[in-house]
Design a protein that fits this description.
By secondary structure, the chain is an alpha+beta fold. It folds into two domains: 197 residues, Roll (Endonuclease I-creI); 82 residues, no CATH class. 56% of the residues lie in helices and 15% in strands. The chain has a four-stranded antiparallel beta sheet. Strands 5-6-8-7 form a four-stranded antiparallel beta sheet. A hairpin with a 2-residue loop joins strand 7 and strand 8. Helix 9 packs across helix 12 and helix 11 crosses helix 12.
């Protein structure tokens, strides 16, 4: 079963911008995120891009063909890792045409990051750039899990560029490193939904929002159940202490000498050890506060005998 991150990438892979500038920005981020440079004969440059997502590989190939006349080849291998997923290796064959393409995409030169800024002047291009970054090295937790979205790259400068774009768009981003990689991440659920909207993952956005709502309902139900369970346990514990006090009074021969109202309340409690205060009130045809007052008096009398102290709580549930 594909992960939620794979579903998001599959959706994005089928979205092709009509504007050439947006295609260039998306390809730049995609390759900057996941491609490596290959050196061929005559010092010609090439590119190697590997992904486990077939849709991402197809889109990368489509964007490359649209951007340049470079020669490409695609190979499929079986991963040796535990999941044994297919790995799609897209290779741009070394040739003189590759260097101009890489310069356009900001992958060469001392001012590579500056060239990225040239690609990001328009808002539509910034959205496409973030889309490419997510397809190249993004991941996102399932909607019912802890909210977490991250973009992973081995380039500090590229990670800093992505973080800068997101900060200017008012996203609450974090920045950290993990081994030899740099991570730009978002942990706020609302911000993650905004990010999915920005990159055009509308279906994933709907699924994420539905999952979050379902998660919130489940959490609320669990809180109510836990609260009800705790209250029930308090009721049971209080009833047990009340019965202990009533038995103590009965053993000392004091119960039969008490006013009839207290005797009725004591007998009712003994006969209904699991009943709540409200239920006892209904049985005795009195108010809840009246039952509470009577039980407190019984417990106070038992406490005065010296054996209920330290064991009898004055709380009645």
């Amino acid at each position: 079963m594909p992960s939620f991150a794979a579903d998001v990438k599959n959706e994005l892979a089928h979205k092709i911008d009509k504007k050439k500038c947006c295609q260039t920005a998306e390809l730049a981020a995609l390759l900057r995120m996941g491609a490596s440079i290959v050196l061929g004969g005559n010092l010609n440059l090439g590119l190697s891009f590997v992904t486990e997502n077939a849709a991402v590989a197809r889109k990368t190939l489509t964007l490359l063909k649209s951007a340049s006349e470079v020669k490409t080849e695609v190979t499929v291998t079986r991963s040796r890792r535990l999941k044994k997923n297919n790995r799609y290796a897209l290779r741009v064959m070394p040739s003189p045409d590759v260097r101009p393409l890489m310069e356009t995409l900001g992958m060469l030169g001392e001012d590579a990051i500056g060239r990225d800024r040239e690609l990001l002047k328009k808002q539509c291009c910034r959205r496409a750039y973030l889309r490419g970054a997510f397809m190249g090295g993004g991941s996102i937790n399932r909607p019912d899990a802890e909210c977490h979205l991250e973009l992973v790259t081995s380039s500090y400068g590229f990670a800093d560029t992505i973080a800068g774009i997101l900060k200017r768009m008012d996203f609450p981003v974090g920045f950290t490193d993990r081994k030899n990689n740099y991570l730009v991440y978002i942990k706020d659920g609302e911000a993650i939904m905004d990010f999915l909207s920005v990159i055009g993952a509308t279906k994933a956005l709907d699924e994420f929002e539905s999952g979050r709502n379902l998660k919130e309902v489940r959490n609320q139900v669990n809180r109510l159940v836990n609260c009800e369970t705790a209250n029930l346990q308090k009721t049971v514990d209080a009833a047990a202490r009340q019965n202990e006090c009533i038995k103590l009074l009965e053993d000392r021969g004091m119960l039969s000498n008490l006013p009839l109202s207290l005797q009725k309340t004591a007998r009712c409690r003994q006969e209904n050890p699991d009943a709540t205060l409200a239920e006892l009130a209904d049985m005795l045809l009195v108010s809840k506060s009246c039952v509470n007052h009577r039980l407190r008096k019984l417990m106070a009398m038992a406490g005065d005998l010296g054996k209920g102290k330290g064991e009898v709580s004055e709380k009645v549930y």
